[in-house]
Amino acid sequence: MIEISGAVAHKFISHYHASECIMASMPVDIEVTMAHEVAQILLSRIIVSQGEFIFWHEVNIELNPIRKLLLDYFFGGINFHEMTVGIMRVLAASEKNISEGEVYMAAFNQVIYNQKSCQAVGIFKIDGKQPFIQSSLMDDQLALTLTKGIGIKDLNKGALIILDSDKNEMILKVFQNHPDVKYWRHQFLMIRPLENEFYQTKNAMNLCKDFALKGLEDMTKVDQVNLLNRSVDYFSEKRLFDQSEFEEEVLASTEVKVAFLSYKGDFEEKHQIEAISEQFEISKPAFNAAKKYFKSVIKLDRNFHVYVHGQRQEIERGYDEVRGKNYYKLYFDQES
To answer: Are both 6 and 108 inside the same structural domain?
Structure first.
């Protein structure tokens, strides 16, 4: 949905966040020869982050200060420097314990969103620079200089804000190196997930995983793993999610269907998410990200792990009264 391979940066500024912020007096116009490379360095890490976001405010979206500053900039009400100074003031007011460091901001062109070339702005926080050695050869003499700079991995937090001019609204990609940092998304940017196919797929798969593991108290471990596997197979094989179809093909019994519908409402309320749609296009990136948490393994004491990938009828659970132990019986054609 978002493509940066042709993106170019045309303006850049670096402010410094501290107890008393240091503001740069003017931005730099990036030379054409550097414009593409600068964009790739700044954007390559953030573009692979999961999901997309939109601005939000608990009272009125018009009161979101970062959104207002960006709209004023995109539509010519303020210049790039004025916008960045305003953003720094919002950052300084959002959290008292933000670590000191540089804040880079850049303006981009040719960011592709929904197959359209869009304007965009990036905000990046750098908590520390890495030392590196720079060498140069002059008159057969090698000169070494120890200096500090940043690379892709030194961008600790970032936000790419893309203007969708057709809808007069903005879409964000957001990155932060520590998921438990709350201020970047909630206090500074004030954003929430965009409820698109990625959001729907991720939430639906999380619901299926939670239901398989916790939804029915009398469900055996084998049946739990079997339900997890059937859920993954459904999302893997289908292009569209259809709840009625999912219930028929994966849940099967009336008792499990009723329990699933009840659990779905509780899950949405507990996790404070919008109701998961009954039909939506399945996002393959969201599926690939979520499926790694579907564990098809039964752990037996510290001795054995039983991996169950299908064929529920080929595994039986029982109890040996002589040994006083539970057991699994597996049926197979050959071993390797």
So the answer is: yes
